[in-house]
Design goal:
The chain is α+β, with helices and mostly antiparallel strands. The chain is built from 6 helices and 10 strands; from the N terminus they run ααααααββββββββββ. The chain is rod-shaped and about 135 Å long. This is M23 family metallopeptidase.
Length: about 260
Amino acid sequence: MYDWAQKHKKRREVKWQAIRQGRAPRSWAAKRKEWDPGQDLLSYDASPWNQTSGKGQARGKKGGRLRTQMLLTAALFILTLLVFRSQSPVLKPAEQWISGVMTHDFQFAGMENWFKRYLGGSPSILPAFSRSETDEKPREHRWHSPVFGKVVLPFDEQRKGIVIRTVAHARVAAADEGWVIFAGEKPGLGKTVIIQHEGGSETWYGQLAGIDVKPKDWVKKGQTIGSISETKGQPLLYFAVKQNDRFIDPASVIVFD
């Protein structure tokens, strides 16, 4: 009994010495980890509404992705601007490639897949990628007649197009919106304009007196692209339609008066 009392007294002295020296016993240290009296109560709150939620983390990720998209878009715009403003011959191939993308049929499906893979979604800010319920419904495509007139030479495999007789000095209109990929002289056709439309189809306008557009111009349906000249005393227009790399009869897709 005496030995037990001595040991108990000795343990109390050891604990007291530890307290005086600033070393809390092990059981106290464990409790101090749970709550420190010196800690500011306003900075510590274990309430559920003060904890970081998964939604907040998700919003942070979305914000980071949006910033990445904006930075990539700005960088691409600045790079394209520098390429076209620069006079360096080193950048000419890049300028030609960009011009080719803008003036020829573009693989929108491939670009959309690239956006989905690296940027997490399709670039819906661009009209070519934006979709709606009405886009999913098939719609009948209607071409605009380039001039009002009568077909005097019908389509055949050798001519590749038709010849329309109209009135003197008539204005020639684009059959549909698209990019002007050629504006100049062509053997046998004289002054000619070629426009590429959605899906890669092309319309050819030949035997013009004047041309009002230039290559890389974007034209709208019905927009004036040139005027009629008189061939052998007659105001004639050569008109052709090219689809899937072959010429078709324009009268099969356009109604001429």
